[in-house]
C-alpha cells in the first residue's frame, strides 16, 4: 500500500491551523485502513536498556562554565535510570520522592489526559484540554512543536512508544500531497498539526492534517520539520535504539526536510528566508526574513541529522552539503546576529553607504534605526542573538526560544552561551519577571504595533506573542542553564512557576510587563505548559537527560570573533 494513497479527499471538518480561529478547513484525510504504523515497526526491537543520554560524561566535563559540580542540586551521579515504568507511573515523581511537589503528580495526570490515540496507539498530545473554554478552535489537535516537550517528558520517564508512534505518524503525513489553492508545497514539509477523528459508527480512525493550508495567514510551519529531526535524535539518544532512525523511511524523511532548506537559489546568506508566522509565533509579528528561532532550529536540525544520516550514496552527498552549510551558518550567526555592549557601540558608530568588500557595515544598517530601549537594556556583561538581520534591518528584540536553542545546539560559542545567561541574570525582571519567561522582549506598542502586527488584537503589547510570558519556555531555559553550568537560574525560574502554575490551571501564557496576569485569551491546561514544567523538573533532578537535547561544539566550527567584550 503506497503512502501516496493517503492523499485525500478534501473534507470540511474541525478547524485546523496555526492561528486559533474557527473556519472551515479543507484538510487531507486518511482512513485507518490506508496505512498502518506497525508496518514500520516490524523491525526487530533492540533490547537495550535506556542509555544514559549523556554519553556517560560527567557533568563537570559537560558544563561550559565549569562551575557545575557533581554535587549540584539534585544531581546524583550514582543514580542510574534503567528501570522502565508502566505507562501510569511517573518514574520521575517516584525518583523524586524526597521532593514530591504536589504539582508534579497533577501535571503528570493532566499530561496523560491529553494523550491522543490512533487505532489504539498513542500518537501525540492535544494542544490544550480546556473544558471551561467555550471555543475549542484548533487546540484539540496535536501540534508538532507542542508535542516536543510532551515527548521529552515521556522519554525521560522511560515511555518510548508514544514518541515512536508520533515520529512514524508524522512521517507518513509528510508523504501526503500538500496544496494551497493550486500551488503544491515541497515534498518535505511536515504538518503544523494533525487531528485524529473517530467515527464510532464505522469504528474507524481518520487523520486530518494541516500543512499551512488552513492556518491563519496560510503559512507553512518551517519549524515542524526541524523539531521532527531534533526529536528523532532525542529518541535515539534516549533509548539507544538506532533502528528507527536507520529505517529507509526515516532517512528519506530527513533528506526531504533538509533538501527544502539546502537547495540553491538567489540567497546571499546561509540563513533561511522565511515568511512571518512560520514558527512558534504563528501570526504576523515582524519575524519574517531571517528569524532567530528558525536559524537556531535549522542549525540544530542540521547537526542532529549529521549524527543520524547513513553514509550511503544519498546520505553522503547530503552530509557534505550539511557540513558546508553549518560552517557558513555558524560564521554568519556568530558574527552578525550577536549583540553585546561592544558590538552595540560599534553599530551605533557605523558609517553607512559603504561599498565593496571592505565595508564594515555590510548590511548598511542605519544607526538611527537602533531603538532607544536597547541602549538601556544592554548590560555591560552579557549579550544575545538578536531577532533578525537582513539588508538595512536589524530586529534588536530578544527572543527566548532562539537564544536557548542556540546554546543547546552549540550555535553559540561557549563564551556566547555564558553571555546569554549573564544577560538573563542581569535583566531578570524584564525577561523572567513573575512568570518565566518572556517569549520576546520588549513588546511592540502604538504605531509600531499597528504597522508590524497589522493591528492584531491578540498580540497587543505585553500579551501573547507580543511580550507575553510562556511557561512552556521553562524547559528550554532549564536545559540551557544546565548546559552552561548555571542550574541555579533554572531553579529560581521553576520556583516562580511552581508558585502559580497549578493554582492558575497551567495557562498557555501570561500577560503584563512582569507576566503577573493570566493571559487575556490563554487556554487553561495547555499541554506544553504542563509538559514544559515536567521536563524542567526532570532535567534538574537528573541532568544526564540533557544529552538528548544538547549537542556539543564541533572543533571545525570554532573561528571565534575577537570583538565581543562579553567574551572576556
Ligand atoms: C499558538 C502558538 C503556537 C502553538 C499553538 C498551539 O498558536 O502560537 O506556537 O503551536 O498555539 O498550542
Automatic annotation (TrEMBL):
Stretches for region Disordered: 1-23
Gene Ontology terms, MF aspect: endo-alpha-N-acetylgalactosaminidase activity; sucrose alpha-glucosidase activity
Record GO biological process: sucrose catabolic process
Substrates-to-products reaction catalysed: Hydrolysis of terminal non-reducing beta-D-fructofuranoside residues in beta-D-fructofuranosides
EC annotation from Swiss-Prot or TrEMBL: 3.2.1.26
Annotated InterPro entries: 6-hairpin_glycosidase_sf (IPR008928), 6hp_glycosidase-like_sf (IPR012341), Glyco_hydro_100 (IPR024746)
Keywords, alphabetical: Carbohydrate metabolism, Glycosidase, Hydrolase
Alphabetical list of SUPFAM superfamilies matching this protein: Six-hairpin glycosidases (SSF48208)
Gene3D superfamilies for this protein: 1.50.10.10
Domain of life: Eukaryota
Record function comment: Invertase that cleaves sucrose into glucose and fructose.
Family: Belongs to the glycosyl hydrolase 100 family.
Protein name per the record: Alkaline/neutral invertase
Biological source species: Rhynchospora pubera
